[in-house]
Queue: 2 jobs
Job 1
Amino acid sequence: MKRCRKCQAPATVCLARHNVRLCAAHFLEFVQKTVKKTIKKYRMINPYEKIAVAVSGGKDSAVLLDVLDSIYGETLELVGLHIDVGINAQDYSKKSLDRARDLCQKLHREFVVVDVKKEYQMSMDLVKEREERLKRPYCAVCGTLKRYLLNRTSLQLGCEKLATGHLLDDEVSVLLMNIINGNIDQLVRAGPRLEGNDSTMIARINPLYEVSELETTLYNQIKGFGFQEEECPYAKGASTTTYKNLLHNIEDNHSGTMIKFLQNYHKVLLQPLKTSYQKAQPITLNRCRNCDGPTTEEICAFCNIRYLLTKNE
Ligand code: AMP
Ligand code: ZN
Ligand code: ZN
């Protein structure tokens, strides 16, 4: 029988990229330590800060909230923040909201929900219905709405930072996609920490930056959270999935490839890229004429979408 490297109990988990077997308890500790190291390395969190944790109702952000809760306990004020984007198909939004709320209750953390339908008279169901008005991909619209509302609400709640559950596999597949497509605007913004600016943009952190999807799946199973890998009914065939599958194939044959890619990008390429890019075109942010939020245009993407979607034709 294979045994845990730490305590010799029967091993439940084998982590190929670290070449180590662990029992359930030591695996949870391993994930928590990994996150702690990432937080320290990238100086993400200071004690007693108030942090909004974006909880989607999926397993990754559930693991994020649980890990932060176990690492920091009372020394960090965590608020679970959920955006209800209004997808009725397969009861998707309702189930997501219930799961996010249940987890916050279980961990005795404050829970805040933004109901897009009630507060802004829009929903992703309406976007589906009026897709031709927007002329941009469905998932991109959803991303814009969520980013805007997560930013705005966490600032209103007086939080210092916003933490999201993006993990290793997400970061690397997006990075690869952006390199292939030459999306320099996105490439210079890669990394586990984005600074905020004055009072319109909250600082963003990704504490699961160096945790893999396989690891959050195992963590979720061991903790018995019962979160599913439930994909949005409209997101089927998203292009990042293709990149993820490709990376998983490479990872199966050469374990550690994803983390090496990410760490080397950060260590070797990101800084020179940022310096030369900012020299070429300094980014100036304006205030949206409608909502006062940050934008590079006159009207921000959120207000623009809202106008196109809700105007009478
Ligand atoms: P996704 O792009 O769906 O993989 O989500 C990435 C991260 O964004 C999640 O781990 C959450 O932290 C955050 N997020 C996504 N959807 C929501 C939502 N509806 N409410 C709050 N946070 C969300
Ligand atoms: Zn053990
Ligand atoms: Zn606006």
Job 2
Amino acid sequence: MAQVRTQDIVSATPVVAANPRAPGNGDGRSGTAVITRTKPRTKRPNLYRVLLLNDDYTPMEFVVHVVERFFNKSREDATRIMLHVHQNGVGECGVFTYEVAETKVTQVMDFARKHQHPLQCVMEKK
Ligand code: TYC
């Protein structure tokens, strides 16, 4: 039996309730025990790419601004991403958990609509 380290106990799910009818021994405790799972079970979140789609009308400078503003990219990285989308039709701005990706898409779409540009932003499960 491997040593139990408290930092490995990631779930308090009882997996065994030992000997529930054990007689009391006068110590005031019930005579039951709960064994918790000790195997580290890390579960990775599902990840989503946030993509920009090319169109013929949104100004390049607007797209660069969007990538800087909502994806925290430098002007140089934002320009590279914009040019990649312009030349390839689609490009990745970042990879996020579901709720963060959804928020980015909504922010970009709202901002584009407010400025009357047809820019499209979508998310795609990795
Ligand atoms: N194709 C656009 C233009 O020539 C620029 C552009 C780039 C638009 C990226 C959208 O996601 C986009 N003005």
